[in-house]
Amino acid sequence: KLKSLVFIGNICRSPIAEAVFRKLVTDEKLEHKWRTDSAAVSDWNVGRSPDSRALSCLRNHGIETAHKARQITKEDFQTFDHILCMDESNLRDLNRKSNQVKDCKAKIELLGTYDPQKQLIIEDPYYGNEKDFETVYEQCLRCCKAFLEKDH
């Protein structure tokens, strides 16, 4: 059975997390076991590519992504096993939305729950600089590795 995971953030954090997780899964030769995506709670950036600084950060680590932003749907709550988000605001919004969905099967958590360094919140780097994007990348890498090792 295919396991599925969707990251929730925006055009910065969730595409980084998705690309990092996809690379980890590919490197471990587990891509046949996982369906991975990323989405946003809001519809502000639907159809847009990730922030250019997010793409640059990923490229610096040898990772490419062709992701286009989309908004989370009711079906996501019914089909994805895990929905991992970046901060308390995302978590609140997702829990509210999931309460309106019949047959919600997704486990909704903060991605930071898996951080061995206990950084629970992955801050939005949008108003920051390249260093802030690098911090997000490092957090996502630690969390995604730990999530994958839990062998969901």
UniProtKB/TrEMBL annotation:
InterPro entries: LMW_PTPase, Ptyr_pPase, Ptyr_pPase_sf, Tyr_Pase_low_mol_wt_mml, Tyr_phospatase_low_mol_wt. It is an enzyme of class 3 (hydrolase). The keyword Cytoplasm applies. SMART domains: LMWPc (SM00226). Gene3D superfamilies: 3.40.50.2300. Its EC number is 3.1.3.2, 3.1.3.48. The active site is at R13, D124. It is found in: Cytoplasm. GO terms for cellular component: cytoplasm. Residues 3-150 form the Phosphotyrosine protein phosphatase I domain. SUPFAM superfamilies: Phosphotyrosine protein phosphatases I (SSF52788). The keyword Cytoplasm applies. Keywords: Cytoplasm, Hydrolase, Protein phosphatase. GO terms for molecular function: acid phosphatase activity; non-membrane spanning protein tyrosine phosphatase activity. It catalyses: a phosphate monoester + H2O = an alcohol + phosphate; O-phospho-L-tyrosyl-[protein] + H2O = L-tyrosyl-[protein] + phosphate. It holds the Pfam family LMWPc. It comes from the Eukaryota. Acts on tyrosine phosphorylated proteins, low-MW aryl phosphates and natural and synthetic acyl phosphates. Belongs to the low molecular weight phosphotyrosine protein phosphatase family. This is Low molecular weight phosphotyrosine protein phosphatase. It comes from Ptilorrhoa leucosticta. The lineage of its organism: Eukaryota, Metazoa, Chordata, Craniata, Vertebrata.
